[in-house]
Amino acid sequence: MSTDFIARLVGMVLFAALGVYWGIYVGNLSGQNQALYAVIFALVGALIGLIITPYISTRPVRALRGLLGRVSSHTLVSGFIGLLAGLIVAALLAFPLSALPSPFGEILPVFGVLLFSYLGITVFIMRQEDIFSVFRMTLPGRAGDAAGQMVDNGRTILLDTSVIIDGRIADISRTGFLYGTFLIPRFVLNELQYIADSADSMRRQRGRRGMEVLSALQKDATVPVRITDIDVEGVREVDDKLVVLARQMKSPIMTNDYNLNRVAELQGVPVLNVNELANAVKSVLLPGEPLLVDIIQEGKEMGQGVGYLDDGTMVVVEDGRGHINEQVTVTVTKVLQTAAGRMIFAHISE
Hints:
Strand content: 15-25%
Strand order of the largest sheet: 3-2-1-4-5
Radius of gyration: 32 Å
CATH superfamily of the largest domain: 5'-nuclease
Number of domains: 4
Distance between the termini: 81 Å
CATH class of the largest domain: Alpha Beta
Shape: elongated
């Protein structure tokens, strides 16, 4: 039974009772049959209550919950502090303003409360980053303390399902290069659980690996991990929800998904791509540089052999098909950078 249905029933009873009251009152004024007026007004009141009750009870509450769910905790705290500051200023000015001649003495204190409350909320929300920066400077966290680091760093990073399943995020977080708090929305966790419960064995294995990585991240105190129930109304796809949430919270998204990366960049959302990080830290190889590589398979083109470096970089060796399962010295001819990684083209050294 939905809350709207219960609200309609309650509203129907209440408005019907008010209709009976007004029917008796109108019957007394007109001198007519009170019972007839009571029945008519009760039926009209029940109909009105049945129709309008959700619009004045459950639906405004639901809209308010949705609005609060889309607002970050920093914004809520800043708005509350700004409201308190505005009320304090309005209270200090209320006494001298009330001493003014009528009607200013009655109007200006109320106007001051509304004005300074609005200004306090607006100013504190606009300068929330500066306010929390002051808190972080005055309340430094202890080394190794997750809660202290959360206060000290202040940045929030939204994690996508793909980067959790990938697993490298756990190793990267242990290095200390990332700072802030990993924030995992509930809808990302639900998608991860859905993958872990999939009938396909490969998808199920990937989902369970993601669960293990998430558990390792929570146990590691280097970067705090927080799961939030903040949701985005009116959006169904997980990637779209992440982009909208990142724009609202002004937080970067960490992902390995190429499509999500492009969509987020087009909408002005900063993206932390683990693949790009892995490519950036690989050793730099220049054309003409010698390289020792194990050729393990044939290439796509005639006569090519393929090997891999320790970091997973593919090396395509011209005329290397005859050296499969051998370790040879090659000379780099070209380095090709792609979205998926780097490819090195080389030939057998003389």
